[in-house]
Amino acid sequence: MSQPPYPQQPGVPQGQQYAPTYPYVPQQPTTKPKKPWYKRWWVWVIGVIVLISFISQLGGGGDDAATTQPAGTTTQAVDGVVTEAPVADPTTAEPVTEAPAVGIGGTLTVGEVQYTLLDYTPGVTSLGNEYFNTTPQGQFVIVTLTVKNIGQDAITVIGDMVALRSPDGTEYSASDEAWAYLDDSPLAKDINPGNSLDAKFVFDIPVDAQPTVVEVSEGFWGMNTAEFTLG
To answer: What mean pLDDT, rounded, does the chain reach?
Structure first.
C-alpha cells in the first residue's frame, strides 16, 4: 500500500515536495590514540641517565680499589718501585722548640764577626769630662760588646754594627757623635783576623723608651743579624 503524498505546505512552490527536516546530530570528534608509556621521550631520557651512571660506577670501582692505602701512609716511587711510607701525625708531632734567648754574658756569631754582650747601661745623662762633654736629647744608653774577627780579612768597627729595638718594633741607631766623648772610642778601628776588642756603642733614645733587644750584624753592608735579649 503506497503512502499518500504529503499535503502541499504553505511557502513551498507548487509541484515541489516538502522534505521533512530531521534534528541535527553533531559529529563526534575522533580521539587520537595514546602512545604507550615506553614510547614517551622522558622515559628514554631517564633510561640513558641511569645507564651512564651505572657504567661510570663500574669504571671507577677499579681505581678506588687500586688507590686505597692504609691511613697515615703516603705512596712513594723510587726507581720505579712504589712503596708506602708513614706520614707524621700533626697532632702527635713534637712541637718545634725555639732557640734559647741569649742575654748579657752570651755570645752570638754573625757571618765573620763574633759578639759577646758584656754590659747594658741605660739612663746616662752626660758623657765626657768637665771641659769636654755632651748631654743627650733623651737618655744615653751604652752597650758594651766584645767584637772578634773570626774571618780571614780585616773588619772595621762602625756604629751600624749594633742597633736597639723596642717591643713595638721601633729601632734606634748608635750615635757616632756621642762616641767622640768616650775615653777610648772604638770608632773606625780595624780588627785583624783572630783579634778582638771591647767596644762601647752609644745610643741617644727617649727617656721613656725601654728597648728589649740588642741587634748585631756584620756591618754596614751586612744582611745577616742576630739578637741579644735584655731583661
So the answer is: 78
- Indicate the range of 80-84, 130-134, 160-164 predicted with least confidence: 80-84
Residue 82: pLDDT over 50:
yes
User: What global pTM score does this model have?
Assistant: 0.58
107-229 CATH, one of 2.60.40.1240, 2.60.40.1220, 3.40.50.1360, 1.10.1270.20 = 2.60.40.1240
Q: What is the CA radius of gyration of the chain?
A: 52
Closest CA to 149 of 116, 114, 117, 118: 114
For residue 94, what is its C-alpha cell? 713534637
What whole-number distance in Å separates Cα of residue 65 and Cα of residue 60?
Answer: 9
The DSSP-derived string for 78-116 is ETTEEEEEE---TTTSPPPPPPPP--TT-EEEETTEEEE
Three-state secondary-structure class, residue 14: coil
State CA 124 to chain mean position distance.
45
Reported as a pLDDT band with limits 50, 70 and 90, residue 211 is very high
Q: How far is CA 37 from CA 42, 140, 160, 206, in A?
A: 9, 99, 91, 93
Q: What is the 3-state secondary structure (H, E, C) of 58-72?
A: HHHHHHHHHHCCCCC
Please calculate the CA angle 154-155-159 and round it to the nearest 5 degrees.
Answer: 165
Question: What is the helix (H) or strand (E) element at residue 130, kind and residue range?
Answer: none
